Amino acid sequence: MRFTKSFLAVAAALFLVASLPAQTPAPSKAPASDFDRTLLKPSLLKEKAPETFQVKFETTKGDFVMDVTRAWAPNGVDRFYNLVRHHFYDNMVIFRVVSGFVTQFGISSYPPVSAAWIDAKIPDDKVIKSNKHGYVTFATAGPNTRTTQIFINYGDNSRLDGMGFTPFATVNKDGMKVVDKFYDGYADRPTEEQGSIQNQGKPFLDQKYPKLDVIKTATIVGAPAEPAPAAKP
Question: pTM for the complete prediction?
């Protein structure tokens, strides 16, 4: 299969999301009240997820819901479930928004939390579903390197399937109307500064990329009323 140069450049950036080394200065400290302290100990977050559940995201552009299906990616869903339960995605900047491709988030706003999870990798899951419009997938830096970052597909990115990107959830049509509104003027520029994001947290993004949208809260709200929809491009 042949890929255009532009596609390969963007796809390659997905791998970089979880692989860029931390840069100086050293991680700053955040007040204990700002985050669930359990997040500092990834080894404790091992609860098995329900077979299906929903996660509601409240953002600066409105609310949307993910329908999550464990059978699609058991390792990924268990990780996602535990992160949401402990409010990992709360007060998080949506740092990557590439029009027509993906929107991506998953770097903690709190440097101590980022430091705790940077090497907390999970095994790969077999790719069962395709990276099409509205499907949600973990970012990866290669085989068996998924940690906390996820992306939502804006278009038909099925060419990512053969690269090991495993969808585990969907956002329905109404939810994608919200996701489509995320500010995309910076495109991939923040993605290239992940070391600074990890070490300095949300203040770095607030200062350098002030127009980026933010996840206010992400909470588990229950099981879907019906099977997750097959989102169309």
Answer: 0.85
